[in-house]
């Protein structure tokens, strides 16, 4: 799984991983979705509160567009684990991811709006490959 990080990582902040290299980021699977705009919105919105990175494939294609929000240092101290989000396609859902990260993310703040409806648990082998 290749990864590309955004500029200016925030030490201790949340890390938002966006699946892009396979079906999640394609016009073929999600016609009309502006994938480049989504990454720009996430990167600009998260700002200094965290870091956005792109993954070639998170191996959870049935749940695309997949975004994983890893907790900040404070969230990890509170026992939080990375949270997997399915179907992150709209500007509204993308903005909720940004809002959550800016509020502290997993273990620090509850997901805003309807974002908790996007949470899913991928198979263990997929989680282990990404979270380790």
Spell out the helices and strands N to C. Answer: EEHEEHEHEH
Going by helix content, strand content and strand pairing, the class is alpha+beta
Rounded radius of gyration (Å)? 13 Å
Supply the number of helical segments: 4
Q: Quick one: CATH class?
A: Alpha Beta
Shape: globular
The helicity comes to: 25-40%
Second rung of CATH, namely the architecture: 3-Layer(aba) Sandwich
Tell me the count of domains: 1
What is the residue-mean pLDDT, rounded to a whole number? 88
Low-confidence stretches: 1-9
Strand arrangement in the largest pleated sheet: 1-3-2-4-5-6
Query: Ends: how far apart?
Result: 12 Å
CATH third-tier fold name: Glutaredoxin
Give the biggest sheet.
6 strands, mixed
| Strand runs, count | 6
Account of the 3D structure:
This protein has 132 residues and is α+β, with helices and mostly antiparallel strands. It has one domain: Glutaredoxin (3-Layer(aba) Sandwich), CATH 3.40.30. It is built from 4 helices and 6 strands, in the order ββαββαβαβα. It has helices at residues 35-46, 73-77, 91-103, 124-131, and strands spanning 3-5, 14-19, 50-55, 67-70, 83-85, 119-120. The chain has a 6-stranded mixed β-sheet with strand order 1-3-2-4-5-6, with helices on one face. α1 packs parallel to α3. Mean pLDDT is 88; it is low at 1-9.
Helices and strands in order, then pairings?
Blueprint: E1 3-5, E2 14-19, H1 35-46, E3 50-55, E4 67-70, H2 73-77, E5 83-85, H3 91-103, E6 119-120, H4 124-131
Parallel strand pairs: 2-3
Antiparallel strand pairs: 1-3, 2-4, 4-5, 5-6
Helix pairs in contact: 1-3
């Amino acid at each position: 799984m290749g990864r590309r990080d955004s500029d200016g990582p925030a030490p201790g902040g949340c890390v938002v991983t966006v699946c892009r290299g396979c079906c999640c980021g394609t016009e073929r699977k999600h016609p009309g979705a502006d994938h480049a705009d989504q990454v720009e919105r996430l990167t600009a919105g998260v700002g200094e509160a965290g870091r956005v990175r792109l993954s070639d494939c998170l191996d959870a294609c049935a749940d695309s567009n997949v975004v994983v929000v890893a907790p900040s240092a404070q969230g990890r101290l509170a026992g939080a684990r990375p949270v997997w989000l399915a179907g992150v396609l709209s500007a509204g859902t993308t903005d909720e991811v940004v809002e959550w990260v800016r509020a502290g993310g997993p273990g620090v703040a509850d997901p805003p709006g309807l974002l908790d409806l996007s949470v899913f648990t991928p198979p263990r082998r997929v989680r282990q490959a990404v979270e380790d």
